[in-house]
Task: structure prediction
Amino acid sequence: MMDDSLSPASVTDNLETHFIGQRVICYPTLTSTMDVAKQETQQGAVEGTVIIADEQTGGKGRMKRTWLSPKGNISLSIILYPSVVYLPSLIMLASLAVVHSIEAVTGLKPQVKWPNDVLVNGRKVCGILIESDVRGEIVDYAIIGIGVNVNLRPSDFPEISSTATSLSNELGKDVSRLSLIRHLLVEVERLYLALPTGGSIFEEWRDSLVTLGRRVQVKSGKTVYEGIAQSVARDGSLLLRQPDGSLTKIVAGDVTLRD
Ligand code: BTN
Result:
């Protein structure tokens, strides 16, 4: 594996951002970067602070699942203090930033599976978890957690090998985590700063979804829906056309493509 150790200086040196990634904290191993990021917000961490772990022992996924985070992958969390109106856009922003940076660094063409799994050749390479604390109209914090399978060998992890892949596995060679992280931070900032201009994040995210037009099963809480993923609403929710013709709006869930 390439020598690809990460340090705060290697990430921040000449990083072309104003605030995202200007303060970076690296840990060799952590339970979860989400927990440390949350503690950091309670100590008044500056916006754009990034927590990186080489390895997580209790990586958290969506829907209370665990997230495998061995060495060689990217596990990081970014602290933001957005206005409440931009919260729904963070999912779209984060998945697009990942797509753009994977494209730039590897030339691969990732797609998004609603709401924010990033796939390469139909298999998951990245998961995104957003945790926020909102009181009324005030956002205490929002933390974007990003986990990318960079140099993971799927065959070493039978529990995910049928649905997941990694960048190195798709390319046939190791990929620089440092380069990917630096691209990612620049891209997150660019998209974040563009939010007030009402830019085209929604349209681009919608157009990058593999899900639309496909027959899907969606698990949302204890409910399982089947139907055609017809479209997405501006708030990020999925509009599912069910067999009886009704259209159901699903705010959060897990999609399995059926065709
Ligand atoms: C998912 O697809 O279920 C989301 C996975 C999110 C994983 C990342 S890795 C960095 C950050 N720390 C965590 O514990 N989880 C997120």
About this structure: The longest helix spans residues 87-106.
